[in-house]
Amino acid sequence: MTAYVIARLQDAAPHADIVEYIERLPSTFEPHGGRYLVHFTQHQVLEGEWTGGVVMIGFPDTASAQTWWDSPAYRAIAPLRSRHIEGDIILIDGVPDDYVPTAAVTTLREALAAS
Fold first, then answer.
1. pLDDT truncated to tens, each residue of the chain (115 aa)?
2. Are the C-beta atoms of 96 and 13 separated by less than 8 Å?
3. For residues 66 and 13, what is the distance between their CA atoms, to the nearest angstrom?
4. Which of 49, 68, 77, 112 could form a disulfide with 32 if both were Cys (CB 3.0 to 4.6 A apart)?
5. 18 in the Ramachandran plot: left (φ > 0), alpha (ψ -120 to 50) or beta?
């Protein structure tokens, strides 16, 4: 099942480390089947607050994403970003193509019945 690494990163002043990080990043995730899905494209806030930019990388599965995150190639460049850009990064599983929210609805109905 497809997995996603999603980063919400705060805007940062231009820095040579960030340029190097962006240049080197694809070569760290591509061997693990990763590809950019979103890279700091414009976004529209529909509800709530969402500052900064979004980066989303898709992987074939969670294991591939985790292997990339832990890889020596990525760990070597991660400080180039983290020294200059604050943000939140998550790894999340997608849902199968045939997903329907039946299980979630069943769980909620059971919780409502129990209360």
1. 999 999 999 988 899 999 999 999 999 999 999 999 999 888 899 999 988 999 999 999 999 999 999 999 999 999 999 999 999 999 999 998 888 888 788 888 898 999 8
2. no
3. 29
4. 68
5. alpha
Domain boundaries, the chain: 3-114
Rounded CA-CA distance 36/27 in Å is: 12
- Is 52 in contact with 9 (CB distance < 8 Å)? yes
Q: How far apart are CA 53 and CA 32, in angstroms?
A: 24
Distance from C-alpha of 60 to C-alpha of 19, rounded to nearest angstrom: 27
SS3 helix, strand, coil % of the chain, rounded to 5? 45, 25, 35
Whole-prediction pTM value? 0.86
